[in-house]
Design goal:
The complex is a heterodimer of chains A (558) and B (167). Chain A has 558 residues and is an alpha/beta fold. Chain A has helices spanning 4-14, 29-35, 48-62, 74-88, 115-119, 135-147, 160-164, 190-202, 212-216, 220-230, 261-269, 282-285, 321-331, 339-351, 364-375, 387-395, 416-426, 438-441, 448-454, 469-478, 493-500, 513-522, and strands at residues 19-22, 41-44, 66-70, 93-99, 125-128, 154-159, 206-210, 234-236, 251-254, 272-276, 296-301, 315-318, 380-383, 404-405, 432-437, 458-464, 503-507, 527-532. Chain A has 3 domains: 4-164, Rossmann fold; 190-351, 3-Layer(aba) Sandwich (Rossmann fold); 364-532, Rossmann fold (3-Layer(aba) Sandwich). By secondary structure, chain B is of the alpha+beta class. Chain B folds into 2 domains: 2-80, 2-Layer Sandwich (Alpha-Beta Plaits); 83-154, ACT-like. Chain A, domain 2 (Alpha-Beta Plaits). Helices cover 29% and strands 42% of the residues of chain B. In chain B, strands 5, 6, 7, 8 and 9 form a 5-stranded antiparallel sheet that branches. In chain B, strand 6 (113-117) and strand 7 (121-128) form a beta hairpin. The two termini of chain B are 28 Å apart. The chains are: A alpha/beta (558), B alpha+beta (167). At the A-B interface, loops of A face helix 1 and helix 2 of B. Bound molecules: thiamine diphosphate and magnesium ion (MG). Residues 437-439, 465, 467-469 of chain A line the site of magnesium ion. Thiamine diphosphate binds next to helix 16, helix 18 and helix 20 of chain A.
């Protein structure tokens, strides 16, 4: 008899799954029994949240669907933050959860939780499989839904009798997936594309605002060709970093709350904004009424619901970013003249570079810059959330897509370390570094156990300010320096690492930064670097909440 | 801000209603009424939703509803030629005597049917558009409405046009 668990494993193999991040328990015993001698690699994390983040990091770094697995009840609930994180950033993962047997559903049985109900708002779709013969089809649908259209997490809840009992399927594919309620639009509307091209030619100060959709769509090459062909400068969102090389002459860096001065001035000054795979998030727009106030807007996105959601759009183009950019390039006949505009932008760049105090203190920006010089774009960088994340976004030069793994939409502290673990399995050829805050690292610090166990060569760079730094920064600036519950007592991170069997170094001096980074990168296994940075360093530029994005503080005067 | 009537064709599956309703409440869309039932296709259901909002809100509502995998088609019937109906059952206090006669007269004008007669109450059944039922309810209030049950609006296009799956 072929069990549901067996069918499941075969379906996963058919979908090309090579790695699962998971944690066992009673209701998934049949699945674990199949995994015991399966060719699929299972990575035992130390907390289910980390399994979801690792699947997410795997997906972001590879472009393939990440997979995680947890038991019912507490295991499933522990996945929720990770699933919500993936949902907010449109990351394709499939999460499997065990469930009590179908006969006990709804009875408050031991370790029952209504995980499909709980995750309904944070999944693209989810399933409770009540009939084992549906299992094969459901798995196939789930992977299809997760990776197509606007990607996102899908959860499959598996009652124990379904995985334990007989099930048809597995082996050959049950056939092409057709879902009459789900048919994403991939090709942009040609008339809209031509209208967009007219606007582009006519505009004097066009600007591309590129988001995570460019990365998801695998459209970096097309975006670069388009920007170069039209000579239109590009600013990217936090999620879009790496979509164009950070050192490209047309690249203005990130826009928004902690955007560069040049990017934010360019948005405010442009007469045409071309939003590509971006969603006008409030952290990007600041006060929405004053965002790109003089610009006509072209919006290219695969999700029609994003168009016109936050900002009026003159030319909507629903479609896959890559396909639309290809069509734009094909149909482009004339190009506008952006020379004056580009010159103005270059003047801003020269006048308003990022800056921090360059003394002999150990400052986080310097650490990131050193790391950036060392890796020269040849690495995957994950981050936690807070100042560490923004410093990385500003000071690390991302040169390629899928080399930047960060929780943008949900802003999940504790994301970076497990996501970096996932990224390693996606890109074992590249060094993987998690830039961490001391607060965030302690949210999933138990994963030191995982990296030690499998000798996963993830390097953790802790920017240790003994503060919940980003919150402290707000308290400093807007709450009269009343540091309410944001100071963290010192922690000996290296000793914790060592207790898990992971090497580490504490660094107090600026002069030791480079050597420490080199040592970590040269080590085969995992490594923890505890940098004791200037405690009250702030992230600038900064747009205060509710302000227009050209009203930045901590910047060069105009 | 005016009420829009949306006809939503969905997969006839467990949990679909909670997906739709959950999405509405999560995104702060205001449901005025909601009616679900089977339809001409055995494996689909039709939900009629009346939602309040300006045009941009309703556009978002439709797009977000459409994004649900189990939703097959969403149509806004508001600006289109359609027939809209609601059904109400109204239990009204009616002591034998003049008020009872008056109530029966009102029922007659509204083409409401008496579906139950008690010693102290009458149950009226009325079908019509929302305004008609509101009007009847208002008139009956003076006699004392003991209980009121409304189905929520359902709607259908006039003529040969249909709201069918093509998505
Ligand atoms: C799970 C979670 N809880 C709370 C927050 C709110 N928050 C945002 S940044 C931050 C401080 C992060 O501190 P740390 O990790 O030390 O980073 P730093 O800002 O000091 O670099 C907090 C508490 C969050 N983003 N995520
Ligand atoms: Mg900190």
């Amino acid at each position: 008899m072929k069990t549901g668990a067996r069918t499941l494993i075969e379906a996963l193999q058919r979908d090309g799954v090579d790695t699962i991040f998971g944690y066992p328990g009673g209701s998934v015993l049949p699945i674990y029994d199949e995994l015991y001698d399966s060719s699929i690699r299972h990575i035992l994390v130390r907390h289910e949240q980390a399994a979801a983040h690792a699947a997410d990091g795997y997906a972001r770094a590879s472009g393939r669907v990440g997979v995680c697995l947890a038991t019912s009840g507490p295991g499933a609930c522990n996945l929720v933050t990770g699933i919500a994180t993936a949902y907010m950033d449109s990351v394709p993962i499939v999460a499997f959860t065990g469930q009590v047997p179908t006969g006990m559903l709804g009875n408050d049985a031991f370790q029952e939780s209504d995980i499909t109900g709980i995750t309904m708002p944070v999944t693209k779709h989810n399933y409770l499989v009540k009939d084992a013969d549906d299992l094969d089809r459901v798995v196939q649908e789930a992977f299809y839904i997760a990776r197509t259209g606007r990607p996102g997490p899908v959860l499959i809840d598996l009652p124990k009798d379904v995985t334990n009992g007989p099930a048809k399927g597995g082996g050959a594919s049950p056939g092409k997936v057709t879902l009459r309620g789900y048919q994403p639009t991939y090709e942009g509307h040609v008339r809209q594309i031509d209208r967009a091209l007219d606007l582009i030619v006519e505009s004097e100060r066009p600007l591309i605002y590129a988001g995570g959709g460019v990365v998801h769509s695998g459209a970096s090459a097309e975006l670069l060709r388009f920007a170069e062909a039209t000579a239109i400068p590009v600013t990217t969102t936090l999620m879009g970093l790496g979509a164009v090389p950070g050192d490209h002459p047309l690249c203005l860096g990130m826009l928004g709350m902690h955007g560069t001065q040049t990017a934010n001035y360019a948005v405010t000054g442009c007469d045409l904004l071309i939003a590509i795979g971006a969603r006008f998030d409030d952290r990007v727009t600041g006060k929405i009424e004053t965002f790109a106030p003089n610009a006509a807007v072209i919006h290219i996105d695969i999700d029609p619901a994003e168009i016109g959601k936050n900002k009026f759009v003159d030319v909507p183009i629903v479609g896959d970013v890559k396909a639309v950019l290809q069509t734009l390039l094909q149909r482009m006949q004339r190009r506008g003249d952006t020379a004056d505009w580009v010159a103005r932008i270059n003047a801003w760049k020269a006048q308003y570079p990022l800056h921090y105090q360059t003394d002999d203190r150990l400052r986080p920006q310097y650490i990131i810059e050193e790391l950036s010089r060392l890796l020269d774009g040849e690495g995957v960088i994950a981050s936690e959330v807070g100042q560490n994340q923004m410093w990385t976004a500003l000071y690390y030069c991302f040169k390629k897509p899928r080399t930047w793994i960060t929780s943008g939409g949900l802003g999940t502290m504790g994301y970076g370390f497990p996501a970096a673990i996932g990224a390693h399995f996606a890109r074992p050829d590249l060094p993987v570094v998690d830039i961490a805050g001391d607060g965030s690292f302690q949210m999933n610090i138990q994963e030191l156990g995982t990296v030690a166990h499998y000798r996963i060569p993830v390097k953790v760079v802790i920017l240790n300010n003994m503060y919940l730094g980003m919150v402290r920064q707000w308290q400093e600036l807007f709450y009269d320096r009343r540091y309410s519950y944001t100071e963290l007592p010192p922690v000996e991170f290296v000793r914790i690492a060592e207790a898990y069997g992971v090497e580490g170094i504490t660094v107090d001096e600026k002069d030791d930064v480079r050597e420490a980074l080199e040592t970590a990168l040269a080590t085969d296994g995992p490594f923890v670097l505890d940098f004791r940075i200037e405690r009250e360093e702030n992230v600038f530029p900064m747009v205060p909440a509710g302000a227009a994005i050209n009203e930045m503080i901590g910047v060069h005067r105009e | 801000m005016k009420p829009h009537t949306l006809s939503v064709l969905v997969e006839n599956r467990a949990g679909v209603l909670s997906r739709v309703a959950g999405m509405f409440s999560r995104r702060g869309f205001n449901i005025e009424s909601l009616a679900v039932g089977t339809c001409e296709e055995p494996d689909m259901s039709r939900i009629t939703i009346v939602v309040n909002g300006d045009d941009t809100v309703v556009e978002q509502v439709m797009k977000q509803t459409n994004k649900l995998i189990d939703v097959i088609k969403v149509s806004d019937l508001t600006e289109r030629e359609s027939v809209e109906r609601e059904l109400a059952l109204i239990k009204v206090a009616a002591e034998p005597g003049t008020s009872r006669a008056e109530i029966l007269q009102i029922a007659d004008i509204f083409r409401a049917q008496v579906v139950d007669v008690g010693t102290k109450t009458l149950v009226l059944q009325v079908a019509g558009d929302t305004e008609k039922i509101d009007a009847l309810e208002k008139l009956l209030r003076q006699y004392g409405i003991k209980e009121l049950v409304r189905t929520g609006k359902i709607a259908i296009l006039r003529g040969s046009k249909t709201v069918k799956s093509s998505k």
